[in-house]
Design brief:
mainly beta; Immunoglobulin-like; six-stranded antiparallel beta sheet; five-stranded antiparallel beta sheet; 8 helices
């Protein structure tokens, strides 16, 4: 374990003991650090509930939804965060709600925010109104029931295409997010379109362009972002944040762009009304870059790229400083045959040897003569776009730039030579770093060099809050090294390397009212310092017995209050380091990074999940994807570390679907063929079969989104239809007697929903314990500030 400073450790220890409540609001004096200055969102975000009283979140309407069921019409609506007045025995206290059908009151609901109307029909029209101290408040907008318990949001599919290699491709709706882009209190739906040839960063080949659409719930397409040919398509490339960053009541979109990225706006009849590229920085225009540039490399282009890299070998700073071999022959372990600087002919000869002999000799998968479709050069940008119209608000150079094709990042060092792999691993998140206002965090790299940069958007320009950079992991030979687990060259952040995951989370881990960034097995403090990096001793059966080593990289990260019997938050992770990792799975103290309990697996433990799947057990249960027939004690664990079962639920995605606040699992993993998604309860079995729909990302089996987008506190399931023309939104219609405010008015949950689309999608968690055995007295009463509707 890399400890924080002694002062910070003392603070963490005392806070962890005293504060087990999550971030809901920070005192004004503590919420606004000097790093933010006075330019953060000035003039925006005056609250309609408690002005400047707490965390800035969205103004939402009642979110009333109605669905036809076999027992009548089911109604569900929101209790808003700023309506909560305290705690009760079966839920949070707040207004009662009067239910109207066709203009006449039919019920007053006090114990929940749902109602089943046995006399309702598909022709009925409903409204609800809050009632407090005997006075009725504003009635909601009228709604009519859905025909079934789902609604199809119609989409406008992009046209099919053909790659430069002559391969045809089509499109499917993939990751999603939500945001109120026009300030009416209702969410719009942001859909990323992936081409059928999208790639992992380790896979060769061209991809089609990535598109990102913004829709109204009625299917109106507001605008489309065509990211262009210079951003490859796949889970690791495009991480888009949709959030109201400046507090004006309307969400912006922030994401990585490039030359060729184009904004397409549509009119009321669906016609294109404008097309405009993002603005290239002046220095790039002066340097001759243009939106017509195509930086995708063919196999021949890549070979020429290698020749050029080899011809300039003697100029590389690492070679000049004698940190790398002086000659390529030395790097390849062959006899010297050329003088340096290399002539063009000699560079071609060595490139031929590298591609045809050296690389295949290290691995049969190194088919560099077939290496094509990657973008290894050219400008990279970060753009802020108006969520309602797509209008470009600002574009800046992406920080940090790639620097090279991955040579410095270790992409040529291991047996699998994979240019453009470690260098092009991107993540993004939203975090309340000052305890009140949201910042955007963008990350590049996690296997070797690891970087994170935080920005504030004040409505006019981006302001950098902090930048964390491990520096490159030093290598004696970039063509034959083991850079994973090697400390970075920047002492301040050296222990960040190899600790990142395929997602990150924002949570107030130390109870100071400000969110930190949990970056897998390391955590960045709200001020950008490295709070800790988790190490542990390798067990005797590992390849590192007795050594203090990183917990290391993994695929699944979960942060929340999983054990109500101990203070603060916990982190559940699985790790893929195999025999080189001290744990295959571990539950850690989020404040210190120390392991509470875990197990060694000796293999790539690929997936893991946490949830209240057994209401008879106190706290959450946690599990990994290790099969039950393996010779290790894997399986289902209690929050306290008790082994419960060798058989486990699924690990794709969880959902809060049931009336009793237990956790359900979304299943539908695809290997060779696509499968129909289901929602499964560990005790009751399948509770929903989403016929006619599909999940995304094959073995990951992710829905487009799982989030509390309307109705009561339960989450909706958003999945693409099999025909590809819609996103189907499923609503839980099980009547509940538990009264809870919308989870979108919990800061950790709301930030997690914005983050969910990033890379390997993970569930969203509130900053407090949420399970069937919930202690209502410990659920925080929200102190939030929302823009006026």
């Amino acid at each position: 374990m890399r400890p924080p400073s002694s002062i910070r450790r003392a603070l963490i220890t005392s806070l962890a003991a005293l504060l087990c409540l999550p971030l809901m609001a920070a005192p004004a004096s503590a919420a606004h650090g000097s790093r933010h200055g006075s330019g953060h969102g000035s003039g925006h975000g005056s609250g309609h509930g408690r002005p400047d009283a707490g965390v800035r979140l969205e103004h939402l309407d009642r979110g009333l939804v109605a669905a036809t069921t076999s027992g009548g019409v089911f109604l569900s609506w929101r209790l808003l965060g700023d309506e909560v007045t305290g705690h009760g025995d079966t839920g949070m206290r707040g207004p009662a709600f009067r239910v109207y059908r066709d203009g006449r009151p039919i019920a007053t609901v006090t114990d929940s925010t749902n109602h089943l109307d046995p006399a309702g029909t598909r022709a009925s029209e409903y409204r609800v109104a809050p009632v407090a101290r005997g006075r009725e408040g504003r009635r909601s907008a009228a709604v009519k029931p859905w025909v079934k318990s789902f609604y199809d949001l119609k989409l406008r599919k992009p046209a099919d295409g053909v790659t430069p290699a002559g391969e045809a491709f089509t499109y499917t709706a993939n990751d999603m997010s939500v945001g109120d882009v026009d300030g009416d209190g209702r969410y719009e739906y942001v859909v990323k379109w992936d081409p059928s040839n999208s790639k992992d960063v380790s896979q060769r080949g061209y991809t089609g362009n990535t598109y990102v659409d913004t829709y109204e719930l009625d299917g109106t397409l507001r605008w489309r972002l065509d990211l262009g040919v210079n951003i490859r398509s796949g889970a690791h490339y495009t991480q888009f944040q949709v959030y109201d960053f400046d507090g004006d009541g309307r969400s912006e979109m922030m994401l990585k762009t490039a030359p060729g990225t184009k904004i397409i706006r549509y009119g009321s009849r669906g016609q294109v009304v404008s097309e405009r590229h993002v603005t290239m920085p002046r220095q790039d225009v002066r340097a001759g870059y243009s939106h017509q540039d195509d930086y995708r490399q063919s196999a021949a282009d890549y070979f020429d790229h290698i020749v050029e890299m080899f011809a300039k070998w003697h100029e590389r700073p690492e070679v000049v400083a004698k940190r790398w071999p002086a000659t390529l022959e030395e790097a390849f372990g062959i006899e010297p045959a050329h003088e340096y600087p290399l002539s063009h002919e000699d560079a071609v000869e060595l490139a031929t040897y590298f591609v045809d002999v050296y690389a295949p000799g290290r691995s049969g998968n190194n088919r560099l003569r077939e290496f094509e479709g990657f973008v290894l050069t050219g400008p990279e940008y970060l753009s802020v776009l108006d969520g309602a119209t797509g209008r470009e608000l600002q574009t800046i150079p992406y920080k940090p730039g790639r620097g090279d094709d991955g040579l410095m990042w270790g992409d040529y060092a291991m047996s699998r030579i994979e240019p453009g792999n470690r260098v092009d691993r991107f993540l993004s998140a939203v975090a309340y770093l000052d305890g009140r206002r949201p910042s955007a965090v963008f990350a590049r790299g996690y296997y070797t060099r690891t970087t994170l940069v935080a920005y504030d958007w004040n409505g006019r320009r981006l302001e950098e809050v902090w930048y964390a950079d491990s520096g490159h992991a030093p290598m004696a030979n970039p063509f034959n090294a083991s850079p994973h687990g090697v400390p970075g060259s920047n002492p301040e952040y050296a222990d960040l390397t190899t600790q990142g995951f395929h997602s990150m989370s924002a949570a107030d881990v130390d109870g100071d009212g400000r969110q930190e960034i949990v970056y897998g097995a390391a955590t960045i403090d709200d001020d950008g310092d490295l709070l800790y990096s988790s190490f542990a001793e390798g067990p005797p059966q590992s390849s590192v017995p007795g050594q203090n080593v990183r917990l290391g990289h993994g695929d699944a990260l979960h942060v929340g209050d999983f054990d109500p019997g101990r203070p603060g938050l916990e982190i559940w992770t699985v790790h893929e380091g195999g025999t080189w990792a001290p744990y295959g799975w571990a539950l850690r103290d989020a404040a210190t990074g120390e392991v509470i309990h875990g197990g060694y697996s000796g293999r790539d433990t690929g997936r893991g999940m946490v949830g209240d799947v057994d209401p008879a057990i106190r706290g959450m249960e946690a599990w990994s994807s290790v099969p039950p027939d393996e010779g290790i004690q894997a399986g289902l664990w209690s929050a306290r570390g008790e082994h419960l079962d060798r058989v486990t639920p699924g690990t794709n995605m969880s959902i809060r679907w049931a009336a009793d606040m237990t956790t359900q699992l979304v299943n539908g993993t695809a290997t060779t063929e696509l499968q129909t998604p289901t929602i499964d309860d560990w005790k009751r079995g399948t509770v929903l079969t989403a016929e006619g729909t599909l999940t995304n990302n094959w073995t990951k089996g992710n829905p487009g989104l799982v989030a509390d987008v309307f109705g009561d506190w339960r989450e909706e399931l958003l999945v693409r239809t099999a025909g590809g023309d819609a996103v189907r939104i499923y609503l839980s219609t099980e009547v509940t007697g538990r009264k809870m405010y919308t989870l979108m008015h919990d800061p950790q949950y709301r930030a997690d929903v914005a983050r969910q689309q990033t890379a390997y999608n993970q569930p969203a968690y509130p900053g407090f314990y949420f399970g069937s055995d919930i202690d209502w007295s410990r659920v925080p009463v929200p102190r939030i500030s929302t823009p006026k509707g």
